[in-house]
Amino acid sequence: MAARILDGKAIAKEIQAEIATSVAAHVAAGGMAPGLAAVLVGEDPASQVYVRSKQKACERAGIASWLHRMPDETTTEDLLEVVSQLNGDPNVHGILVQLPLPPQIDELRVLDAIDPAKDVDGFHPQNVGLLSQGRPRFLPCTPSGVMQILARSDISIAGKHAVVLGRSDIVGKPMASLLAQKESTLGPNYCNATVTLCHSRTTNLAELTRQADLVVAAIGRPKFVTADMIRPGAVVIDVGINRTDDGLVGDVDFGPVSEIASAITPVPGGVGRLTVTMLLANTFAAATK
Ligand code: GUN
Predict the structure, then answer these.
(1) CA distance 115 to 156
(2) What is the pLDDT of residues 197-254, one digit of tens each?
(3) What's the pTM value of the predicted model, to 2 decimals?
(4) Span 74-119, pLDDT tens digits
(5) Residues with CB under 6 A from ligand 1
(6) How far is the CA of 99 from the centre of ligand 1 (A)?
(7) Beta-sheet pairing, 247-249 with 242-244
(8) Pick from 184, 173, 195, 199: nearest CA to 147
(9) Which of 7, 173, 201, 276 is the most exposed place for a label (fewest CB within 10 A)?
């Protein structure tokens, strides 16, 4: 039976409309418009696309946004200076430094320098620690978007076996942490999963994925997850966005896997839309906390 296609585009639209309503009410009540500053270093085409889509989404939601473009040869010190200015700017509630950064820049030093109260990406070690302790402040946007897709599609994960592919700081690790939380603001069905975190050194990967009720693929390898790796009826969430000669493809071999899974996210039109949306949610939260 063909899987239910989880429409990230529609879910993102719904959440963005909710955020726009909340922002308008906040401003009508005399609150300051939320503001997001994005910093883009260099000319990476994918990063330019992401940053543009963030700016457009901010505009639609009534969130002020600023883009600081910096040249490819920017040093760590140059970037730290900009971060410091943004930390001190009362109009800026959220700061996002687009990753990846050019190789000469010390990424961790830069992320550590962002005021944790403005860290709407949730990458600062203080925010990573709070999530790990089960008292999150800002949820990293992509994993948070995955939880929204599950919750708004009524796919309960409590007590289920989730297999996360990929251990990146941006997606894999926080995804595993979120799925395994004891509590969630989304309700009791959207936490308490049993989580297996797989990575490039995992042996018998397919054996593990075949035991999963939920597979979240975030490894950045086109069509890596094949139908033989999926248990019939499992839910498959594809976080991959790979630019290939065939256009944008996910980490999941969508056609054959969608014949086996009970529900699946497409690429494009799946998780990607939620990442920007949850950034808006975090920026609104930063402005109103
Ligand atoms: N590059 C790819 N995804 C992200 C993200 O969620 N945040 C930032 N800052 N950079 C990214």
Answers:
(1) 35
(2) 999 999 999 999 999 999 999 999 999 999 999 999 999 999 999 999 989 999 999 9
(3) 0.97
(4) 999 999 999 999 999 999 999 999 999 999 999 999 999 999 999 9
(5) 96-99, 121, 141-142, 170, 275
(6) 5
(7) antiparallel
(8) 184
(9) 201
